[in-house]
Amino acid sequence: MIAPSDLPRRLLIVSDVDSTFIGQEVIELIARRAGAESEVAEVTEAAMRGELDFAESLQARVATLAGLPVAVLDEVRADVTLTPGVPELLAWAAERGHVVALVSGGFHEVVDPLAATLGIRHVRANRLEVSDGILTGNLAGPIVDRAGKAAALEEFARAEDIALSATVAVGDGANDLDMIAAAGLGVAFAAKPLVADQAQRTLPGPRLDALIPLLENWTP
Fold it and tell me: Does the predicted TM-score (pTM) go above 0.90?
């Protein structure tokens, strides 16, 4: 075990979820059950490249899910796989007292159970509206967009009493750009060119624990 006196400065590591912390785009997994996966995947890809307004594109994609029973989310949760290197990154962070948080343009219904099994306390995501056990095709509550992700990073930092200069944001799409800019260190992971061009560091993937040597050699 590392002695407390040997611990580095405590960090807040905030990761995007879809195609960063996990290997899938959750909305596409849900849309598959509605027969709209191809249509939704095209819109998702354009939004990640920054070609579409995220909030508008998300609402359009969620609309295709109307009529699905909420029980399909159990199937979707079973389809989700962690990005290689996530367990190693979490173990490294826990040993050193760092905090890992998740922010997602996806959905609490899928992200929350995943975070709970991994011991992750801070999560911000969108929420699907449900009526009588059926997805309505709408969202409940405010949309977690670019600004929402950056605001979540700042909120989590305050809650953990960690300076913004000691925060790390990791993401792959245009929706992550504001939090990447707000963090002490912004990292593009297997990212779209727009994101790779604006992040301070880039990791090509496929393993998220490639972040470890980067952080071990970074001084906030």
Answer: yes
